[in-house]
Amino acid sequence: MASLPLCHRDDIPEGAARGFLPLPDAPRRVIVVRRGTRLDAYMDACPHYTGGTPMAWRRDAYLNGEGTHLACHAHGALFDIDTGACVSGPCLGRKLTRVALTEDQAGYLSVPAHVAGRAAREE
Questions:
Q1: Membrane-spanning regions, if any (predicted)?
Q2: What is the pTM of this model?
């Protein structure tokens, strides 16, 4: 399966989340969250509306104030970082679309090529 380079693991500081475009013309960013050695990735699309709404109110502002959840600042929804499940807000029962990450020996992260055109919402 073809993959797209996204970033280096060191591009995401400990306890932070950053958004990356898998291709310059991709419709959505991929959010990568780093906690310790764990990296989780999701499409930057709140499932509250069909098609998804970008979640950050400014570049890379994906976490709530405490840094404990991914947050949709447009709707006030909070999402569990480990599962992507909505735990508070208007999209309870839905979740973010998880993105598979691969890491090479040098620490570079890639995502599957289909992510560049992927639908914004997971059903």
A1: none
A2: 0.90
